[in-house]
Amino acid sequence: MKTQSTNSNLSRRGFLATTASAAALAVVGTGCTEEAQTKEVAKRGKIPIGLQIYSVRSEAEKDLPGVLAKVAKMGYQGVEFAGYYGHEAKGIRKMLDADKLVCCGTHTPMADLTDDKLAATLEFNKILGNKYVIVPWLQPNDKNPKEAWLGYAKRLNVLAEKLKPQGMWIGYHAHQHDFAALGDTTPWDIIASNTGKDVIMQLDLGNCMDGGGDPVKYLKLYPGRAITIHLKEFSATNKKAMIGEGDVKWAEIFKLVRAAGTTKWYIIEEEKDAVPPLQGAEISLTNLKKMRM
After folding, report:
1. C-beta atoms surrounding 160 within 10 Å
2. Class of domain 3-291 (CATH, top level)
3. For labeling, which of 104, 253, 276, 284 is most exposed (least CB within 10 Å)?
């Protein structure tokens, strides 16, 4: 695990912990639905592309409505949240509808998915129009980490059953430490092999490779589980490489995703800060569109 990436993820973990519970609940009418968006995109035979707003968090903290408008203008069809910058669900939904954006996911800490908080968390996501509730980070400090990971898997299965009647999915997002050896397995394998198909395994291509994993291998091992997938570049020689400029085997990734036929969203996450964040988001989208078949 690289020091730069580790610091980034610790910062993200703190960000999630302090922002995910900050917004209040409210009620709002329907607008641009995911179903309508994906049906429209499906006519063109391509998976829609969203942006993880954490990529542009410094701007979003100052002006979320302005950032969403710019992201939509770039050509993104959806956004995934990792915190709400003090906004209520009703207000965010109005912003999304105004820009014809879909909420294609939220990174929601496990602490907000306990039995006493679950109803409020799901209501918030329903107002946003989101179906994909993704746990962004798990890392036990337990003396028996394998048992701890099995416990996480059990809880994700329980949550999947609770969310299913709501038309929603639970999932887990990949970080570098998820691919570290744990005896004869890895945390990612423990979660994937001990959860049902209704638990999204949100592979992050860059994080996987940065942790010593092979995303091609994992897409083959667990076909159909990447209902949403994070697109991020990795380069062993250029830490500033943008999408399409590094070592990710993009053509093979796209081929596997198409073959599985279950991926609903590609989600770009750009954390390198090689260029100003909004510029990085636009470059990433442009590069991705050039590569996709």
Report:
1. 19
2. alpha beta
3. 276
